[in-house]
Structures are given as structure tokens and as C-alpha cells.
Amino acid sequence: MHWVAKTLFAILCMLGLLGIGGATYQTIGTWMDARRSPEPGKLVDIGGYRLKINCAGTLSPTVVLESGLGDVSPEWERVQAGIAKFSRVCSYDRAGYGGSDSGPMPRTSAVIATELRTLLQLAGEKPPFVLVGHSFGGYTVRVFNGRYRSEVAGLVLVDSPQEDEYQLLPSDWKKFDAALLQHYERLARTAPFFVGLGIARLKLQINGGVRSNDYLILQSKYLKARAAELENIQTSAEQARAAGAIGDKPLIVLTAGRSFEATPLPGLTQEDLANSERTWVDNLQPRLVRLSTHGAQLVLKDSGHDIPSDRPDAVVEAVRQICTTPEPH
Known about the structure:
Blueprint: H1 2-36, E1 42-45, E2 50-56, E3 62-66, H2 77-83, E4 88-92, H3 109-122, E5 129-134, H4 137-147, E6 152-158, H5 165-168, H6 172-194, H7 199-206, H8 220-231, H9 233-243, E7 247-256, H10 270-289, E8 292-300, H11 307-310, H12 312-323
Parallel strand pairs: 3-4, 3-5, 5-6, 6-7, 7-8
Antiparallel strand pairs: 1-2, 2-4
Helix pairs in contact: 2-12, 3-4, 4-9, 6-8
């Protein structure tokens, strides 16, 4: 049996070497990516953990960009560059995302809004703020406005969800969210193995290469934060509902005209998807418009859900309109 022990020892040594090699590959790859495409901004300690914030421009009001689920701050690059020409603008990474440290659980819009306000204060950014929330970020900017009303001058909601969607959209969307959460939680649990040992990076390399910002999401903390946000998304929805209306502040709702057509789901026909699109555009999004007595909706028929990437010009123009709207008397 001596040969069995030798064989097992050799296998263990080989696995150990592969593990060390994979971890080294991941570490060096991340370092090289960060050197080639450093994430702009600075880290600010908000009470035991740091968040990365990136601001540009000088004029008032300051525009704050709140990302969608799973999006890191560099994805606002074209939007931020456009806004910086006429106003100050800040993007940031939520706790666990990109260059930011992990934050406390649970990850809800109420927690995130509190962190964001602390970040803005400690970074020296002064109100009034124009808040821009894409997708899940729409819940957070509404909660922020509900808590700190005197600091908010206006809002832009970019294809943001509305809290009644589970009652109005087909029930299969609930199944989709449940399946997506299981997928995110599985990735978060296995992240030390697949990310830490370089397997995820190698898979991306084989499938077409690692993009410039992929190193920001090839992190265990990012995968855990993303899963935690989705796990608590209905809590965040109810927090947004509780934040109430926004009164007479200017509000622009940007609605994607193609949010559903590229999301085939088991159990949903093309007719179901078309009905979902109509419900989104003609019912759920107008409910957001009615949060303000000065609300307006713009439907972007040529854009999918990722409006900041598909139509950054539309986001910039909506912000420009808010920034130039006279304050109500």
C-alpha cells in the first residue's frame, strides 16, 4: 500500500501547486488590470470601512449617480463626462463593489442611502444634490430623498423598478428573480474557489478575454454584496414606498422601450413579454412620474434596460433639464 500513499501525496502536491499557481495568476492579473485601467476616485472612510467616490466638474448643483444592481462606477463614464461639462457630478461604488470595502449586512436601500449621505458629507460634497438612480438604484435615491429632503433638488429615475411590479407583471418574473438569486448566492459561496484561484478569470480569458473593468467584479466581496442586494430587494422596494412622494421637486423618468424583448424566460411567450413591456412602459413607469407634481416621462424606444450604456446622451440631457429648472416657490 506504500505506492497508494505516494500516489495520494503526489496528487495533493499537484493540487496544492495548481492552487498556488491559480491564486498567483489571479493576483498578478488583477494587479496588471488595475495598472492598465485604474479606477478613478478616492477612498473615504465612512466609519470603519471605505467607499470609493469619483467626482468631476465644479458648478452647482452636485449630481450623484446611483448604479443599478451589479454595476460598478466606471460604467457611468460617458454619462459623468457629459454632466461634468455643466455641473459637478459624483459616481461611487457601493460597499462591496469595485474599489470599496465590504459593508454591514443586510444590503438594503435604507442602509445604502445612509452610507451614501455619510460618504458625501465626509468627501466634502455639499447639497443640494440631483440624484440619478438607474434600475435598483432608483429605490435608493427615493429613500435618500425621503430621509434628507432638504438636501435634494431633483431626481432622474433611469428605467427604475416600481414597487407594485410583482402584482402587475406575470408571476413568472418572480420565478426569474428567485432563480437569479440562487445563481448569485451560489457564485458568492464559491467565490473563494472560482475567483480566488483564478478559475473565473481563466474562463473569461478563454471566452473572449478580460475586459478593462472586469477586475473590479472578479472579487468575492463584490459577489457577496450583489447577492445580498438582490436577496433584500423587496425590502428595498417597500422602503422606497415608505419614502413617499417627492412633492414639487422636478423629476424625469427615463423608460427603456426594449427592457423585456431580450429577456426570454421559461413559461413566458412573446405575447407575455410584449404585455410585460406595455405594463412597464404604460403603467409602472407612469406611477413613478406621479411621485412629483412636476414629473415627466421620456420613453427611449431604441434603448434596452441599460440606458447609461445604450443612451448616455439621454441621461445627460435629463440631468441638464433638472439642473436648469427654476426652484419652485
